[in-house]
Design brief:
mainly alpha, 122 residues, single chain, 5 helices, 0% strand
Length: 122
C-alpha cells in the first residue's frame, strides 16, 4: 500500500499525473472543422455563379462519362452506381456526423443533383 502511494506521488514515475508520458500533445483540429473550411461559400456574385456552373457542369460530365462507361462495359454498373451515389452518401454522412455546417452543403448537393439529372438527359 505504501509502495503505490509513494510511486503515485513521485513525479518521475510514468503513471503520475504530471509525467511527460501522460501529457498529450496539442491535438489537431477535428476533421469536421477542416470540412467546414472547405465548405465555406464563395465571396462575390461572380464567384457564386462560377461555382454553381462548375458544380452543375462537373456533375453533368460525370453522368455522361458514366453513361458511356456503362454502354461500353455493362459489367461495371456497381462501381458506376457507387460513384453516382457518392454525393448523396457524402451529404448524409456529413449531416449525421458533423455539426451543422451551413446551407452550402445543401446548395452544392442540389447543384450536383441538377447536373446529374441534366447529364442523363443530354
Amino acid at each position: 500500500m505504501y509502495y503505490f502511494s509513494y510511486i503515485s506521488m513521485d513525479s518521475r514515475h510514468p503513471l503520475s499525473p504530471r509525467s511527460p508520458l501522460l501529457v498529450s500533445r496539442r491535438s489537431p483540429a477535428p476533421s469536421w472543422m477542416r470540412v467546414k473550411t472547405l465548405l465555406s461559400p464563395p465571396r462575390g456574385d461572380r464567384a457564386i455563379l462560377l461555382e454553381a456552373l462548375l458544380w452543375v457542369a462537373g456533375a453533368a460530365v460525370l453522368r455522361m462519362v458514366a453513361d458511356f462507361v456503362l454502354t461500353a462495359m455493362p459489367i461495371l454498373w456497381v462501381p458506376v452506381a457507387l460513384i453516382l451515389a457518392l454525393p448523396s452518401v457524402l451529404a448524409i454522412s456529413l449531416a449525421t456526423w458533423a455539426p451543422p455546417l451551413s446551407l452550402v452543403l445543401g446548395y452544392r448537393l442540389t447543384l450536383t443533383a441538377m447536373g446529374l439529372l441534366l447529364g442523363g438527359k443530354l
